[in-house]
Every structure is written in structure tokens, then in C-alpha cells.
Amino acid sequence: MEESFGLSIRLSPLGQAEQRRLPLYLKGGYEIQQADLDGVKLLFAKPKGNDFTPSQLEKQQFQLKEILQGIIVFVLEDLEPYFRKRLVENKIAFCQPGKQLYVPELLVNLSDLRSPNKAEPKGATLGYPSQCAVLYHLLVGSIEGMPLGEVAKLFVTSAMSVSRIAKELEQHNIITIQGTKEKQMHFVLRAKRQIWERVQELMVSPVKKVFYTDYPLDGEPLAVPSYDSALAKYSELSEGSQPAYAIARNQVDQLDESKGLQLGQYGRSRVEIWAYGPLAFSKSHIVDPLSLYLSMRNEEDERIKTALEQMIDNIQW
Known about the structure:
The protein has helices at 2-5, 16-21, 24-29, 54-68, 81-89, 128-139, 148-154, 159-171, 192-199, 227-234, 252-259, 289-296, 302-313, and strands at residues 12-13, 30-37, 40-47, 71-75, 94-96, 100-102, 175-178, 184-187, 207-213, 224-225, 244-248, 269-274. By secondary structure, the chain is of the alpha/beta class. The strands form three sheets. The chain has a six-stranded mixed β-sheet with strand order 1-2-3-4-5-6. A four-stranded mixed β-sheet has the order 9-12-11-10. A two-stranded antiparallel ribbon has the order 7-8. Helix 11 links the parallel strand 11 and strand 12 (269-274). The longest helix has 15 residues, at 54-68. The chain is globular, with a radius of gyration of 23 Å.
């Protein structure tokens, strides 16, 4: 901090009285040092393990701040670019000693001293085929170590298409491609929750367009509950007054021709046109939780944000 920003601080152990106020899971989960910076109380919390996620840090940052009444800065020795990106987006203060510092409450900017000339790619996202391959792995069945030819049969697609998927995932450091005669995909991270935390910022919403209709879609096999109608089933959120449904892009014409579905700017029901089948990775007749998260993560309603986090936390990875 002194070399980068001219800020001189001295660390000291957390006082006994403050330690007693901490619940056991926080006391045992972090080594905490405190410092004073021109009257501002800084608390540097270093996790004692490596099994944490950005969402966990966000929750525990709030809890530590409430109890200790100071600015919480997580001290993280190893930090992947995707993890750093999530922390910055969620305004979670962190320090990587000698390399990076981000404390938004002090208006301190991110500084990467190790590689100042190395720019991270911006706006790069996975194509839908690659996104679907990862969602299949996370929600349906493992493709870890599966030969690419078998993956092609599983997805009912060509070997060339699967090769493109594997190449794209490898370029984003999600998998490695191993083998010579029979190439296989191997995920860089093995825990599915960690894979999700790694890839979600590379994924895009499956929703291509939103329409409305007066056509009764309840009970229609091609129309799958989505949006807040689905989120209410995955969380404690109350279902909205307007039913919401998802229909695959390649099935809209079929529903229109066979049953006279009319879509427009107004109607009793919300209809989302999805880039892929809304039941492709679902175990029930509602859209899968990860695709639902991707479709709603930019909602401003705090109730929806809380429900989305609750839904993700409830997934049996």
C-alpha cells in the first residue's frame, strides 16, 4: 500500500473483546489483523482455506462489517483473473500482497503490479454450444474425461462441432484437451460449484426476445415456466401476477402454426424466446436454475437478487 499509493499503515491483532463477538465459523475461518488509516478502521481478513467463492466472501464481508464496524479487506495470496473480476463487480475489497489492491470504500483503484502490460480480453463470452456443454456437465451428467467422439454422440452433433466447443473452452481456460489418438476434455476445476463460479461471467442469457400474449399457455408442453414463475419454485420469492414462459426459438413457429399463438407487445402472459431448449438441462417442467440465473441476473429488484442467490445455494452440486 505504501509503495503503490503512499499509504502508511501498521497492522495489529484483533482485540480479545472483538474476537469474542465473532461467531465460531468466522473466527475459525479467518486470520484478522486491523489497522487505522486517518481515522478509518481497516480489517484485513485472510481466509484459512481455499474453498471459498465470491458469493461466500460477499456474505461474510457483510457479516464481519456488521460485527467489527470497519472496512473489510480480504487478503488473498492466489487470485485467478475471473475471480478478481467477480470481486470487483461485486465491490468486494481485497488485497493480493505485493501485486493487487482494491478497496472501493477508500476510492483506491485496482493495481496489478505484476503484469501492467497484460490486458485481459473484454467482452469475450462463450458461444451457445459451448455454454450448453458446460451446463450439461454441471446439471445433467459429467463429460469429464469423455472422448470427444462420445461427446458428439451424446449431444447428437458432429465431431467438428464438438472440436470447436472443446477449443473454445480450452481458450478460456475452462478445460484442457488431453490424449493423442482419442482426445478428451478435462476440466481445470473439478468441483462443480467452482466451475460455475468460474464460467458464469463468460455465459450469456438464453433469452433472445421477450413478447406477450393472451393465448393460454398453462399446460402447453412447449411453453416452460420461466422468469419469476420459475424463480418462485426455486426460492421463497412469491410468484408474480403475470405468468411467464420460455419457448425454444426453433419451436415458436410450430406453436404458432398448430395452435395460433400470437405474440406482441401486450398480453396476459410473458413469453421468452430462448436460444436453446428451456428443458434441455432441467429435471422438471420448469427452466433449469443456472439458465434462469443467467436470464435474470441483471434485474435490479433486491428481492429477485436475494432469491437468485438462494436458488444457487440450494443446488445439490
